[in-house]
Specification:
The protein is an alpha+beta fold. Helices cover 33% and strands 29% of the residues. The strands form two sheets. Strands 1, 2, 3, 4, 7 and 8 form a six-stranded mixed beta sheet that branches. Strands 5-6 form a two-stranded antiparallel ribbon. Strand 2 and strand 3 form a beta hairpin. Helix 2 (29-50) packs antiparallel against helix 3.
Length: 182
């Protein structure tokens, strides 16, 4: 593994569509998929229209009814990820959807070099390895930034509604007007 494969310190936003499985199972799969489609569209537009170039570029990973947004190496403050999360929450509310977001920081990267040799020899550029007539799809990235942001959402209040959580350390990374933001 090389240094270019791992970012030592970046921020991550884990975005989760609240109640997705309940909506899907209640004979409304198209409504659930519409929420997913719109969230995906907004992420795509933010990445292409608002932050298309380095060093502000974003990497976005789709995980079932959730998305992980990762920055390049960490910035001086967390105003940008908080702003992105709030914008996405507001946009989905207009679509009758609710999302929660966990913002964290830490190391993040491509850990393929840790996979078994058999997998590394067979995996293609899209993270897919053949297993007989089937396929194994590998999520190639991980790290503290992902783990921490997901764990934040596990600790959120069980009340319904949007929730924005961030790790309590380094409150100085938010402007003075946002230090009290949850």
């Amino acid at each position: 593994m090389t240094n270019k494969d791992i970012l030592d310190n970046c921020w991550a936003i884990f975005i989760d569509i609240e109640g997705f499985s309940k909506i899907y199972r209640s004979s409304k799969p198209f409504q659930a998929m519409r929420l997913l489609q719109n969230l995906m569209k907004y992420l795509y537009l933010i990445g292409n229209k608002v932050y298309p170039d380095a060093p502000e570029r974003l990497s976005v990973y789709h995980l079932c009814d959730s998305f992980l947004i990762v920055s390049d190496p960490i910035e001086e403050n967390l105003e940008r990820p908080v702003s992105i999360a709030i914008a996405l929450m507001q946009a989905l509310l207009l679509e009758d959807g609710i999302i929660s977001a966990g913002i964290s920081s830490g190391q993040f990267g491509d850990f393929r070099s840790y996979y078994p040799e058999e997998i590394r020899a067979d995996i293609n550029e899209y993270g897919i390895a053949k297993i007989g007539d089937g396929l194994m799809t590998i999520f190639q990235v991980m790290g503290e930034a992902l783990i921490n942001s997901v764990k934040l959402l596990e600790k959120k209040p069980k009340d319904k509604g949007p929730c924005l959580s961030k790790l309590p350390e380094n409150p100085e990374l938010l402007s003075s007007g946002m230090n009290g933001y949850p």
